[in-house]
Amino acid sequence: MRKEAAVCRLFFSFTQVPQDTFFKITARMPRRPVCLGIFFSIVIHLFILLATSFADTVAVMPSDIIEQALEMRLHEDPTWHALIHYEPRTLGGYVSRVDDEKFFLARDGKFHPKNELVKTLQAFFEEGDDDSHPLCRFPARLQWLKGALPLLQSEVEDLSCARFSEWINALSPNGITMVFPSAFLNNPASAFGHTLLRIDSRDQDEESRLLAYTASFAASTSGEDPVSYALRGTFGGYPGFFNVFPYYQTVKQYSDLEHRDIWEYQLNITPHEADFLTKHLWELKGIAYQYFYFDENCAFQMLALLNVLWPEKALLEKLKPWVIPIDVVREVVAQKSLVKQTIFRPALATTLQSRAATMSQVEIERAKSLVEREETLVLPADSPEILDLAYDYLSYALTKGKVSHQVGSKKGLSLLSARSKLNVPSSTFKVEATDSRPDQGHSTSRMRTGVGRRSGKSFYELQYRPAHHDLLDPSQGFLRGSQIEMFATSFRHTEDESFKLEEFKVLDLFSLSPRTDLFQPHSWRLSTGVRRKRFHAVRDGLITDTRFGYGFTWSVDEAMAYSLLNSSLQLGGKLDTNFAGGVGVLAGMLYQPIEAWAIKGEVEHLRLWGDTHTSLEYRIEQRLSLTSDLALRFALARRHEYTTYDNEMRLSLDLFF
Fold first, then answer.
1. What pTM was estimated for this model as a whole?
2. How do residues 550-575 score in pLDDT, each as one tens digit?
3. 196, 183 in Cβ contact below 8 A?
4. Which residues of 267-279 are buried (b: 16+ CB within 10 A; e: fewer)?
């Protein structure tokens, strides 16, 4: 009995049972096995409990979580590839488009999705509690892996991540809007337009969207000239970075300073998706890419951001080898029910022109004089409409440097004071979009097939243009009077010759900006490339030809007339002294009475020295649209170079794709 009592005493001592309770139990034991039975029963239960706890601990060790992730093949998941920006390599395997080693946790993570996944999971369990910890640096990776590996959610330690928390709370993501400022030919970086994403906050409405933040991708340059920018940007000579800044800065830059209309495409996504995309944007802050003007540019990277939300849509795989911003917008719009709403935000110049269209020329001149000259306000002769236009025009004059800020401040106060004395409330002036949405225009690539006759000989023509738009192409969705053509290549086959290169346009830009009562902009043209020049009836040859023109455009209803001082520099072995250069005039008219039909007539005269001769050409061409992506063209031309006269007629079919 003493042995059983000793065992029981040891047991109850171990289990911390009070001593008086112990004596009560031992005094009432009916037989010897009772205490031992209780003891061994509880020991067995304790063993089972400890074994279970130990088993649970083993199941959530980092090595087992990694093993589970590999068994699930998460490193092959499209979302993981989208988060690390992987793309297939030509000869097999993967490579990330990110070029900054800070973005990768594995030494070879740029090329190996599996190694980057393993290292990421290991890094989540590392010691540390500051903002540099991988848990704070990669919140989107963490969120996705927690969703894929539920055991990870309970085992990873939560960190405060002060800087990240402050940043995402400031953005307060609730929705995403794709923003497209229209093309701006005076800036090479924006010649094709621009694409960025706006992060809409929970507490904002359409009246306060200017306070939202935007995400953009741009090359980090040092103010190089346009030629240097084009060359370095084409061959990846700049680093590119994601930037986050207030939306009102975007509107000020694009709408007020560069006078570009802005289109906003509100996406139909959930707050959870907006939060996830914003977390991924945090992962890319300060991370360098190699910037390429024609593919890995602003538009491509915006689509790469959206790709983390819907990797199964393979949005990036549907793009052409060259990426133009409007093509990215079209790709997003093409996704079923992805765009919830489209909003037009007119530029300051567009608003001014629309307001002026409702007023007489006398009223417009009066409003301008109040801004540009020392005019005395006369009330009530200076009506509310005149004062409203004058104040808007003052804002425009300030952005263009026509009025100093000191003078502008005084005039602004004077105009506002006079406006308030009229005691007439300002009417809501809403500017409607004069053109169709940019995504509704023709596709950017064009294939042309045609037949014709030149100097009595028939020919067949084949032309391919990767991008983008010329003056006679369907104008729907494009800036009227703008032309951007790149790498347009034409071949011709004549009756007695094989296929020959007729023309290769490296670049052809044309900006027709009509002068109005309010604005007096200049028009210009720049083109460079290779073309076939006829020296006499039986001899021709390829030369390089670079032309630049500068002048004015006037618009009357549906017609635009233009006149430019023109220059040309021609180089080629078949030219006397191997070059010819000179000046002349380019004049023309573009008329489009209806959307489906347009006609253009031009005359171009050049007096050239070096290989001294005169060049004179008359041409007329018209376009008839059959559909938005199919058009017929008919062209007539007469050229005079040296002593040779050429007459040409061409009928062609244009297919946009």
1. 0.84
2. 999 999 989 999 999 999 999 999 89
3. no
4. bebeeebbbbbbb
